[in-house]
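Support request, please re-run this one:
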Amino acid sequence: MREIHSWSAIELSRRIRQKEVSVIEVVDAMLARIADCNKANAFVCVVEDQAREAARAAQRILESGVDIPPLLGLPYSAKDVTNCKGVPTRYGSAVLPPFLPQEDNLAVARTRAAGGILLGKTATPELAHKAFTVSPVSGLTLNPFSPAVTSGGSSGGAAVSVALGMNPIALGTDGGGSIRIPAACCGVVGLKPTIGSVPDHQAQDLFGVTAHTGPLARNVADLRLFYEVLEGGHPLDPYSQAARPPSRKCQSLEGVRVAWLPKCGNKELDAEVLRLCSAAVREMEALGARVEEVALDFARLERHFLVLMESRVVRSLRGVDPARMREIDPSLLTHFERGLEHKGEQYLDALAERSLAFQRVQAIFEKFDLIVSPTMSAPPLPHTQHPHEPVTINQRPTGTVRAEWYPYTLGFNMTGHPAISIPCGYANSGLPVGLQLAARWFDEAYLLDAAEIVESALDVPTLADLGFQPPAAAR
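Re-run finished. Output below.
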């Protein structure tokens, strides 16, 4: 029998329900796995006592045989910007006082009610501000494929925890690609839902939000199991009030209209990423999809995205003692200083550009069912990459990290459309590459159906499939 930590969420659930393994054994195995893998810095805190108490309670429910909830006994983690009752929220920051929530984030509350068992909080860069998971609180979170490259961010701890089998499912947040980027960097699956699909009543600005809570897992079926618990309207989230259109099913790719977006305003696209993503699109064509290349410029949104983001950074840090500002991550401090210079007119310009981007994407979805692109324009970048310096792709220095490495993800945060990253292969270096699929608002069921079909066709082995050993070229 394979070790418990290598089982998928669905396999774990089946074995728990069939009483082949107890919830207590599962939680003990995951806690042991976290201890074995702690050098990766995926977790910033582990709630062992709380997890074991929840495991005993779940086992009693199982033995009663009454009203067994969908996630009963499944261990999960929450990113350290997400409130969990009684567990400190640090936001990856050494200068903000630890916050002890008295209530759960809505996603955490729904997971708890569905029987999920919280193991702890996962690492994030300070205030989740960048695509590299390193912070004053947790230090550097290591990519399981290579210690030389980033695990992505800002949900890097969540992606690493799933990839290494510390939990089968994890909660992340995605403000510009923060679920999909680390998912692609770590060879797992990550979904940024439609804005409001997974409600969140704790955001600073409920109406201007670009960050969405969403799930990560090692395969689409596990992610779907988790997402179906998380989604649904709530009266305290304005975007979740929207009426959902009737769910569409995607039973095959025959006749599915695919808008192929190899570039979206970025100057460079890594040759290996292009090879792997193009091969995935050809596989979709072989399965009957009708593919047409489209043009869409998300890179131009970077400066408007930064106005919105940096204005929020100022609000978050404005109460910090000036004598302690030097303790802030230098890249976050740069955003803070820029944010002080932004004017109301620029903020309104950013909102106007966000509206225009939404309309342009909607126009594409009038003709197509899916937009398919690379998740990022290059495999995981080296740790030496500075967040505010030009990125090198195809041995050529190009523009900024946001505009050149991950404009594909950033754009859908501005427009609110759901988007998922799935593995589509390994570069010659052995590093994983992600493929992004996006769909219409609240069309997650269709998106997950399509993603699962593509996942099955590509059949990319995960770290669990490889015995948690990365491809030789990445070692």
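The longest helix spans residues 344-365. The longest strand covers residues 419-426.
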